[in-house]
Design brief:
303 residues; 2 domains; 15% strand; alpha/beta; 12 helices; 43% helix; 3-stranded mixed beta sheet; Spore Coat Polysaccharide Biosynthesis Protein SpsA, Chain A
């Protein structure tokens, strides 16, 4: 393969406490040719910190939206994709950081199979406070974000759509620039879960292959300001995401086996907070049947 060089895109907002560690972790990787900082109108001193780094290190490039506007993480990543110059693109959140040898397995996977367009890998969790750790544990999430080992490339989209085999985090994702440039961008209309939506769309169109999926190659920072800890808001945004993909199921020609799995998860999602599992199952069945009555086309999609 051609020389393996990576553009790392980091959207920056209110991250003055963390951004330097993120930058340093990227610069420590020999495969990283450039770090693209998209400063998103932060009210803190993040812009000054980013500006300082861009002046003292040629590998660090700094961009802002028009008039220094705050456009959100999705729009910032989209701008980063357009500005990237390397053949490979990876991502890093401003409050996260890469571990040593982040791209060693990534490079190996790409070199062994020319058809692979993206590689996904495992990330870990770094808690910035005990309170953040306690609140994160209440969500019943694993400290590792990854897909289970051994998923065939042709099945990755289905597993991401259904969500029963784990998840991919952007920190552990590397994609060929030509596979997404002018084709697959982040949906800026989504208020949250833009990354989940984008990863599904990439998996639907591209060939994904696992890299290191059993131990972390990057760390996700959890602190009290993380949006993930706001359960009510996260539930609202998940509903927006599920509604988008329900409509996509109706308009797409997915195999009926995928439609059935997703439709069940779609119905179940609305009642994940219901305390009694029996009552929850009853509500899911009611939702399942009601939606079939409202939209008879679903029946043709499932059977």
């Amino acid at each position: 393969m051609n020389k393996f060089e990576v553009s790392v895109i980091i959207p920056v907002y209110n991250a003055e406490k963390f951004i330097e560690r993120a930058i340093e972790s990227g610069l420590s990787q020999p495969e990283v040719k450039e770090i693209i900082l998209i400063e998103d109108g932060s009210p803190d001193h993040a812009f000054e910190i980013c500006s300082s780094w861009s002046k003292k290190n040629d590998r660090v490039k700094l961009y802002r939206h028009t008039n220094g506007e705050n456009r959100g993480a999705g729009a910032s990543r989209n701008l980063g994709i357009d500005k990237a110059s390397c053949d490979f693109i990876s991502f890093l959140d401003a409050d996260d950081f890469y571990l040593k040898n982040r791209f060693v397995k990534t490079k190996e996977v790409f070199s062994l199979n020319k058809k692979v367009e993206a590689v996904y890998e495992c990330i870990g969790t770094n808690f910035y406070s005990q309170a953040a750790k306690v609140n994160f544990k209440k969500l019943n999430r694993s400290n590792l974000t990854t897909l289970k080992p051994g998923i065939r490339s042709e099945n990755v989209f289905e597993e991401l759509l259904v969500g029963r085999s784990g998840w991919i985090h952007l920190n552990g994702f590397t994609v060929k620039r030509n596979s997404i440039l002018n084709k697959i961008y982040f949906d800026e209309s989504l208020l949250q879960a833009q990354d989940t939506d984008w990863l599904r769309r990439v998996a639907e169109k591209c060939c994904l292959k696992e890299g290191e999926v059993t131990k972390p190659i990057a760390m996700r920072g959890i602190h009290q300001e993380n949006r993930i800890l706001n359960k009510r808001r996260a539930s609202l945004y998940r509903h927006q995401l599920y509604s988008k993909w329900f409509n996509k199921m109706i308009s797409s020609n997915w195999p009926k086996s995928i439609n059935r799995r997703f439709y069940f998860e779609y119905c179940k999602h609305f009642y994940t907070g219901t305390e009694s599992k029996y009552y929850r199952r009853f509500l899911v069945i009611i939702k399942f049947v009601t939606k079939l009555i409202q939209k008879p086309i679903i029946i043709r999609k499932l059977i």
